Amino acid sequence: MKLLLLVIAFIVPLLANADPVYRLLNLKATDVGYTADITLQEGSGPYGSDIKNLQLETTFESEDTIRIKITDRDRRRWEVPKVVKTKQPTQPPKKVSILWFAFRLYDIHFEEKPFSFEIQRASSGEVLFSTRGTPFVYSDQYITIGTTFPKPDPNLYGAGERAAPFRLETNNQRYTMFNIDNPNIYKENLYGTHPFFLEFRDGRSSGAFLLNSNAQDIIVNNQSLNFITIGGIIDLFVFVGPSPSQVVKQYHTVIGAPFIPAFWSLGWHQSRFGYHNIQEVQQVVQKYKENDLPLDTIWNDIDYMQACEIHHHHHSLSLGLQGFHDRYPEDQMRRFVDKLHANNQQYIVIVDPGIKKQVGYRAYDEGVRDDIFIKRSDNKTDIVNKVWPGLCTFPDFTNPKCHQYWDRLVSDFLSRVPIDGLWLDMNEQSGFCDGECNGDPIIKNKFSHRNPPYVPGSQFGRNLNSRTLSSDAIYSIGSNYDLHNMYPLYQIESTSRTLQQTRNNKRAMILTRANFPSTGTLSAHWTGDNWSNWLSLRMSLSGILSMQLFGISFVGSDICGFKEDASYDLCARWTQVGSLYPFSRNHNELGRKLQEPYLFDQAFTNMARKYLYNRYSLLFHLYTLFYENSVHKGMVWRPLFFEFALDKGNDGIARIDEQFLLGPSLLCSPVVYERASSVRAYFPSGVTWYDYYSGEAVSNGSEWRVLRAPWDHLPLHIRSGSIIVKNTPALTSAQTKKNPIGLLVALSDTLDDSLGSLYLDDGDSLNTVDLGKYTLITYRSVYQGGNRNVFRLQNEILNLGYTQSSNTIDRIVVYGVKGNDCKAESGGAVLPTKIGPFNTLTVNLQVNVLSKLDVVVNCKP
Ligand SMILES: *[C@@H]1O[C@H](CO)[C@@H](O)[C@H](O)[C@H]1NC(C)=O
Ligand SMILES: *[C@@H]1O[C@H](CO)[C@@H](O)[C@H](O)[C@H]1NC(C)=O
Ligand SMILES: *[C@@H]1O[C@H](CO)[C@@H](O)[C@H](O)[C@H]1NC(C)=O
Ligand SMILES: CC(=O)N[C@H]1CO[C@H](CO)[C@@H](O)[C@@H]1O
């Protein structure tokens, strides 16, 4: 009998192995695209349960984005709900009208049998997405759709979250996407799911996004890419670019634009798991000040929480929000936070979703009373898993009643200690039991939500229940099988509403670990539990670049590494490049060597001060990049090929991920290898690159150069033709915001103009852009009379909705000046000038940032 079963088990998949063949029928053009039926003609997918009658709906979303939705015609399947009220682009997508149909940048062609489709670039006929010749399977728990590429080894990016090189490897790789609490193990799936990829081919780009929340794999095999998902539907968006940044912009139009962080949150952050008591935290703030090191925000990990003590550690572990541990007396905490605020500094604490299952604990009792915890598959009992406090239940943020519950807990906590943001950890959801700790699982049938036939992540020896809530757990709107990856979105949405209301409609900071498309509209992210090693340092760069694609612009990694001890050199290099992370926070694990920047030696402290001040001198620039990012003009960090897609100098530009651009014009080439004192850096073509600090012209582009980089030097270059605003840095962002500013002009090396911009608002109120409560200024330097010896620098105020800024522009520094005898004039008055090394010109002046700026510089050759 046993043998027979075994034989059947082998034969059945073999028999079923004739690939499914679907046929397209009844194709009809509609006002906005096409509809059709797709019917299974023969064959079957590897796991059976094929869906026979499918329905196709193709929508021309806009001139550059097409959507292909394939659903079950007979039965409604799980579809991703719209969770976050995503901020739509400032230019709303063009109304579907006959007019723009003529300008569509793509065509779509269907093949009847076997069913396939091909999306082409209208201008050239180039095929961007073609399912022809790729497997198309649509069964209950296994759906696959894919595309082929014209040449082997295409340049592909995306498919996160993981710690891996930015450019995807194409030799039969399986990229799993399923949110789990996994330390940054090279190439394994991590805390977020992003079924998006961007392709870069011959200087142009396209991309695709599968709007699907189930556990998935993307398989990349030399000349093809296949999405495999184990539930939901096919809802595919294809973006035609044609530039890489246009693809990203098109993608963000679907998932929502990144938010503009509160100005203060762009400052420096210090955190540690293992600040044992309030005195230690106070001392860190004090030490920063004594060492003349900028600090905006101090963080507490779980050490502050009141509850049980485990592992014989000093710290206590439980849900926060209930209250503070004895070592963090609440009255002292309140005074401490008030003092931080008086000093323009901020305080943030961590909170986990798990609620300790303990009668008498308010958060638990009220959750039971309101019946808002996630249920087991019986849909009756609260599911229980173990997290730091022990056995826990988990709020079901999809339940509308849950918001009141969460709102009450969070706002009560804030009324006691006015924290400035929340750090949402463990929200994958992480659990120490596989599935649940309730006892034996309730298993109803073989292939259930708990036990699907195909398991993304099984190559790492995991199933969907490994160290997380059981995939058959039940929420008010569906099953964990479908919702697991979206849990953080619901939690962030609820937390954000509460923080905004409680904090008088000010932007609050939320830092989440788990993530999904749309996360970046409300929250920051850090790349999780990395190691204090050089690989983690390198992976932080590609991790941040990938998150920019995913619309999570406000992102960073634990500076100096979380796990294990950071060496002097590693922490020095990490502090340097970390000072240019969109989100800059030094964070460290319990029991590890302390790594605050003043703890090494005087030389280290001086080095850290230099780069922290450098960050603070770029705060207006960063803030302006976030504004531009939010209104869809690009990313905060950019890979080199985003700005230099047509760079002819070197094919390798598509592979570079150890250098990056901060905005369009600052090229950073950090040292990310042990014992290196130089770095091999590529300079993209078509512009001159000046050393950012000295103004020396270093390269005319299109070449690799070896740059000297002693232990305390971060190579940074500015592109000719750009203007950036520089702050006079202070110990906090608030003070920096008031200080005088300067303009750094890197003159164009052709007769083109040099350009820059500045975005200003009050720094923390909501919707400043939509309400017009901001000021936007552009700066332009124009050569006069076709002559590079004379140039005129002017500003133009494009929007004047915020007038509280009283910054003085007190200096203009110009790189690339021709000649060394220069006169500067403004409105007939002569301005003092100075020529320094490398013909760097400094002009001194006193002009209010909101006044007219008009300076003419005339140099003798
Ligand atoms: C990709 O496919 C081409 C053509 O089939 C083959 O020559 C090449 O070796 C393959 N490359 C890899 C990395 O598998
Ligand atoms: C679970 O129970 C609730 C209320 O009793 C009901 O509304 C919901 O539809 C049930 N969910 C499932 C998946 O059975
Ligand atoms: C850039 O090109 C100019 C003009 O050909 C030349 O004078 C200059 O030395 C070059 N600069 C560098 C850094 O190679
Ligand atoms: C991204 C990364 O650096 N991952 C590594 C971190 O360190 C651990 C332990 O050395 C490795 O297992 C990871 O691969």
Share in helix: 10-25%
Radius of gyration: 28 Å
Catalogue the ligands: 2-acetamido-2-deoxy-beta-D-glucopyranose
How much is the average pLDDT?
93
Number of strands: 49
How far apart lie the N and C ends? 97 Å
Classify the secondary structure makeup into a structural class: alpha+beta
Please state roughly what percent of the residues sit in beta strands, choosing from under 5%, 5-15%, 15-25%, 25-35%, 35-45% or over 45%: 25-35%
Query: What about the largest sheet?
Result: 9 strands, parallel
What is the general shape? globular
Low-confidence stretches: 1-16, 89-96, 308-318
Number of helices: 15
Domain Glycoside hydrolase family 31 N-terminal: 56-214
Organism: Acrasis kona
GO molecular function: carbohydrate binding; hydrolase activity, hydrolyzing O-glycosyl compounds
Domain Glycosyl hydrolase family 31 C-terminal: 635-724
Give descriptors for this structure:
Glyco_hydro_31_C; disordered N terminus; hydrolase activity, hydrolyzing O-glycosyl compounds; glycoprotein; glycosidase; 861 residues; alpha+beta; single chain; binds 2-acetamido-2-deoxy-beta-D-glucopyranose; nine-stranded parallel beta sheet; eight-stranded antiparallel beta sheet; globular; Glyco_hydro_31_TIM
